[in-house]
User: Which sequence fits this backbone?
């Protein structure tokens, strides 16, 4: 009997790879659809009895048809793993799916769907000690307004009151806000898992809203970060260093971000080398998309402990070229850096989760 | 038109995720089967006209039936991504599949199959500068025989004749040999890709055959590594340091291995702290599976720059417990270490590829 028993165990093990359809984890409680098949095709069902046409915009547009129950229904092609924004298009109008939780992206609330990734759990909620994401309100004299940032503190922050921590400033993309990295990026799981594993140093992560309007220095150019840079240096960093137990020097302070937040990170860090020594940009790096080589030289090797740039391999040719050109510029200037490329993903959250996962173990060491 | 053009681009992008059946990349040239479906089920077809029963042993045993062409055929359940050994069982006899390339494992030549992993390419052959795997023969006075090891040298080794490199000794598992890491592990792709990316320091990787029979010190206990340790210290390291441009000191020398090779790595490194300062064990770590806490203390923090242990989360309970217990022992002794756990994988090569991919960026920094 022993041998047969062994075989049964072996046969059971791959069952970790689900064979079942699953309601998306991003659905609101109790909503069955959208539902994801094991081959990553997605079934949508929508009640819209009076609509003339309904489609889903998720990695391309998929026209729905009425099924026998009178619902609009479609099964998409296989969707890339990870998180995606999506929309319904009802009689030509782009709307949110009431079945989905809502995520702030593209400058508005968007539906979102999480497509499971086989044999990957670093961004999932695991049975490890959990840090916290704290909503931190602060008064800004420069903008004359209360602002809000999210601050991740690692597990044990409260129970080790003598311990001080390095700080990573982690910026979102255009049209997103301080909720992007926690809600879409699941950054708290990535941090918890890497810290538990021993791969990452326990650290504080600050996710601010990367937009600031300061009277007198507002600009119509989206790549002019003068106002936000001033706010980070004069108000955000001092606030964080006074409210949290930080190691408040450049050796223990890093900044990185995705897309527009990557351009912001490079601009702010390179203009303030006395403040930052760790630097990263995901799907956006350098001082802007049309950056020129003369801005970069080997002094960056002395000033930065790490320069990390990344891109999805499936980004649009223009997006990809922006990062690849910057990689070539750094190579040409003899600037040491990591150039991580995410396989099979575009300008999307799986690229940025992976980038964070690659970067964080290299920080503050 | 611009908007429609954008949508077409978006619709094309996910095509990177193949919808087609593919012959396994591990098949010998020209063999169509085994063939892998997009959902990771695998179709086997075997010609065995006189056999009474044929089955496939791949993550469990799958009985084949005769199809209308008289071939034996079966479609398996979804198989875990990565490399797997497999066998055919013809009338009760375990045999290799003549359609498959052969890999040395379980002490014999085995069929093997590579199941593609969606949106992952770090172990695939990419368009980056390639290092070389050199078959290095060497005479062993201790064993009185010629031995062979495989030595990976990074891209640029020959064209930078003044450069010296750190060395990682990378050991295989029980029943495997020096071909395991290149053939099953695709370690040369992992190294090429990490070095190109800038995440890993260029290094030499030595893959020896981890078995040595020395007259007078042979042992019947598979966890007694006395003979092989003697060979590594007295013959292998001096040979490598004389034939290759190494940085020949403990700060630039690491050792790690999988399964039995993990136990070997810990035993050899801990007995020879003057030789190694970087240490890892994948699905096998500590001085043996029944290791005791008294062998480990915080002096390891001084002697090793990094201690890395890992396991697949889907390993058998006994295998998993071995590594988990060692993790607890190190924690109890206050020994800093990384404990990486591979999601969804067992005692298999994807666990070990991932472990190498996690470990290598941390080495020699």
Assistant:
């Amino acid at each position: 009997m022993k041998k047969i028993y062994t075989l049964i165990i072996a046969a059971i093990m791959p069952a970790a790879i689900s064979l079942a359809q699953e309601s998306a984890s991003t659905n609101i409680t109790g909503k069955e659809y959208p539902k994801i098949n094991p081959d990553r095709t997605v079934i949508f069902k929508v009640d819209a009895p009076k609509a003339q046409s309904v489609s889903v915009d998720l990695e391309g547009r998929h026209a729905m048809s009425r099924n026998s129950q009178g619902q609009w229904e479609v099964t998409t092609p296989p969707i890339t793993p990870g998180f995606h924004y999506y929309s319904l298009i009802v009689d030509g109008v782009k709307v949110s799916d009431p079945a989905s939780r809502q995520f702030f992206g593209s400058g508005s609330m968007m539906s979102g769907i999480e497509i499971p990734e086989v044999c990957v759990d670093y961004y999932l909620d695991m049975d490890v000690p959990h840090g916290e994401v704290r909503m931190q309100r602060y008064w800004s004299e420069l903008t004359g307004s209360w602002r809000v940032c999210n601050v991740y503190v690692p597990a044990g922050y409260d129970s080790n009151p003598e311990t001080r921590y390095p700080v990573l400033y982690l910026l979102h993309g255009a049209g997103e806000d301080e909720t992007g990295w926690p809600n879409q990026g699941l950054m708290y799981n990535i941090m918890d898992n890497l810290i538990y594993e021993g791969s990452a140093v326990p650290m504080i992560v600050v996710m601010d809203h990367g937009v600031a309007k300061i009277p007198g220095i507002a600009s119509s150019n989206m790549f002019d970060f003068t106002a936000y840079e001033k706010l980070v240096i004069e108000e955000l960093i001092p606030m964080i260093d006074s409210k949290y137990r930080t190691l408040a020097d450049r050796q223990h302070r890093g900044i990185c971000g995705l897309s527009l937040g990557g351009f912001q990170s490079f601009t702010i860090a390179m203009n303030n080398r006395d403040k930052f020594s760790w630097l990263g940009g995901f799907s956006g790096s350098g001082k802007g998309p049309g950056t020129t080589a003369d801005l970069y030289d080997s002094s960056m090797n002395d000033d930065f402990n790490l320069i990390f740039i990344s891109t999805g391999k499936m980004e649009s040719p223009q997006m990809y070229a922006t990062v690849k050109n910057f990689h070539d510029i750094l190579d040409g200037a003899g600037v040491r850096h990591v150039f991580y490329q995410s396989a099979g993903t575009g300008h999307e959250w799986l690229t940025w989760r992976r980038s964070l996962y690659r970067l964080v173990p290299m920080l503050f060491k």
Summary: Chain B touches chain A through 50 residues (CB under 8 Å). The first helix of chain B runs from residue 2 to 12. Residues 1-17 of chain B have pLDDT under 50 and may be disordered.
